[in-house]
């Protein structure tokens, strides 16, 4: 069975919430909607304190090409525009809305009828996606309209849909495929039209056999869409790894997927594209996984953006008493949270509660020079070397050793027998070197 060629690991999957039907999260009493919860320039507020807003109404206007619109997920009154702490732990500008009822914009089609035919031109599709504030929902949150607009001289040959969901514990994409399969396939056909390709591949790891069978059956009525089952291997959800696994092409260092003729979109993003183009619905809600070994009612929830995580967790039975660490996302690439008072953002895929006994860091030992971190790195880097350079502020050397190619998957730290915090140091070094490169430009 196909997979990528370099590195990778196979952590235990812990997909406890797989097959559990989605639930609708309760509306918050107050929504706190960040103006910059995606990769790119933050949007500029177009509402002021005291304004009445409806669900789907524009709150923040994109401030550049690599930026995204932000819409209200609730109806009510704008209480204030102020800083709020997000999942990164930093304060960011946000719009606070006191919720009053649930009144939607009249332009949104709320019917359950599936609309298959799309008569828009590629340019109209991309503009619709941009207007709706669609970003990548797999974690990177890169504005989708940018990905669909290749640089001059570059031409897409194939659309690849990332339905891998290789992070342990997370099942939101899996459940979305089971419940919204036909809508996803319509979204795939819309994206194919937007970038003018006649071939699309939906890559799904083989631990989701029900989703594979479901989409294969539905795909028979669509032209040019192939469902490809892949070997279970982390981090196959990385763009470069998925391209290698599906079409056997390697994206060069420092390059992007379009360089090898590929455009990659997450499966949840694809569903959001369907809703934007066919239902005129902006991105103001998403599906997230609430999970953990001790969770009482773990599962997948449709949550309005701006809802405090505490609201959703309470609906799932509350935080387990033995919780030692709260993680936004999965255990491999997720970030620790200091509290549940942060809001759900466009890139929030889930919340994981790790028991105290498992969350404590093990004592770090000296490097054994075993090279396990090198053998599992999917980007062909030397994590032990990069950690040492990061510790010693050797930024020039880190850049020369391709630190910017790191996808922060955590395979190195996962496999290290000496419990060395390789990812922490490499991530810090990558952030520093990235800042140096930007200032140089």
Chain-wise SSE layout:
Elements: E1 23-24, E2 30-34, E3 44-45, E4 52-53, E5 58-61, E6 70-71, E7 76-85, E8 91-99, H1 122-131, H2 144-147, E9 158-162, H3 172-179, H4 181-195, E10 200-205, H5 209-219, E11 225-230, H6 239-247, E12 262-266, H7 267-279, E13 285-292, E14 299-304, H8 309-315, E15 323-328, E16 335-337, E17 350-355, H9 356-359, H10 372-376, H11 383-391, H12 395-400, H13 411-415, H14 422-440
Parallel strand pairs: 1-14, 9-10, 9-12, 10-11, 13-17
Antiparallel strand pairs: 2-8, 3-5, 4-7, 5-6, 7-8, 13-14, 15-16, 15-17
Quick gist of this model?
With 441 residues, this protein is of the alpha/beta class.
CATH level 4 superfamily of the domain at 122-279: NADH-ubiquinone oxidoreductase 51kDa subunit
Strand content: 15-25%
- The structure class reads alpha/beta
Overall 3D shape: globular
Distance between the termini: 43 Å
The main sheet comes to:
6 strands, mixed
Count of alpha and pi helical runs: 14
């Amino acid at each position: 069975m196909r997979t990528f060629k370099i590195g990778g690991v196979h952590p235990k999957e812990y997909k406890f919430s797989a097959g559990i039907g989605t639930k609708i999260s309760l509306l918050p009493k107050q929504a706190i909607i960040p103006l910059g919860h995606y990769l790119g320039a933050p949007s500029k507020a177009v509402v002021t304190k005291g304004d009445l807003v409806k669900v789907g109404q524009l709150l923040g206007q994109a401030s550049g090409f690599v930026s995204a619109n932000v819409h209200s997920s609730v109806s009510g009154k704008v209480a204030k525009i102020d800083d709020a702490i997000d999942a990164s732990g930093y304060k960011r500008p946000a719009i606070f809305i006191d919720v009053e009822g649930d009144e939607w914009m009249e332009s949104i089609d709320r019917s359950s009828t599936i609309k298959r035919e799309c008569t828009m031109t590629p340019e109209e599709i991309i503009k619709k996606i941009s207007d709706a504030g669609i970003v990548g929902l797999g974690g990177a949150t890169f504005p989708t309209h940018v990905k669909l607009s290749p640089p001059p001289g570059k031409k897409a040959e194939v659309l690849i849909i990332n339905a891998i969901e290789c992070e342990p514990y997370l099942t939101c994409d899996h459940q979305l495929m089971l419940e919204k399969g036909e809508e996803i396939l319509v979204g795939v056909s819309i994206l194919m039209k937007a970038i003018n390709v006649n071939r699309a591949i939906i890559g799904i790891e083989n631990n989701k056999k029900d989703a594979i069978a479901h989409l294969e059956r539905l795909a028979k009525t669509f032209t040019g869409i192939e469902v490809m089952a892949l070997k279970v291997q982390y981090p196959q959800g990385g763009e470069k790894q998925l391209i290698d696994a599906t079409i056997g092409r390697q994206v060069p260092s420092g390059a992007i997927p379009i360089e090898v003729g590929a455009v990659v979109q997450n499966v949840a993003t694809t569903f959001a594209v369907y809703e934007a183009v066919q239902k005129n619905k902006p991105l103001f809600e998403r599906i997230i996984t609430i999970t953990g070994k001790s969770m009482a009612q773990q599962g997948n929830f449709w949550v309005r953006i701006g809802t405090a995580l505490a609201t959703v967790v309470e609906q799932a039975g509350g935080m387990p008493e033995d919780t030692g660490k709260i993680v936004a996302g999965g255990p491999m690439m997720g970030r620790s949270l200091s509290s549940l008072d942060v809001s759900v953002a466009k890139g929030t895929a889930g919340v994981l509660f790790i028991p105290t006994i498992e969350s404590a860091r093990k004592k770090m030992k000296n490097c054994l020079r075993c090279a396990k971190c090198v053998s599992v790195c999917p980007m062909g880097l030397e994590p032990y070397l990069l950690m040492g350079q990061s510790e010693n502020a050797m930024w020039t050397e880190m850049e020369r050793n391709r630190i910017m190619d790191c996808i922060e998957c955590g395979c190195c730290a996962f496999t290290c027998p000496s419990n060395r915090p390789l990812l922490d140091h490499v991530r810090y070094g990558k952030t520093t070197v990235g800042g140096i490169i930007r200032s140089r430009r």
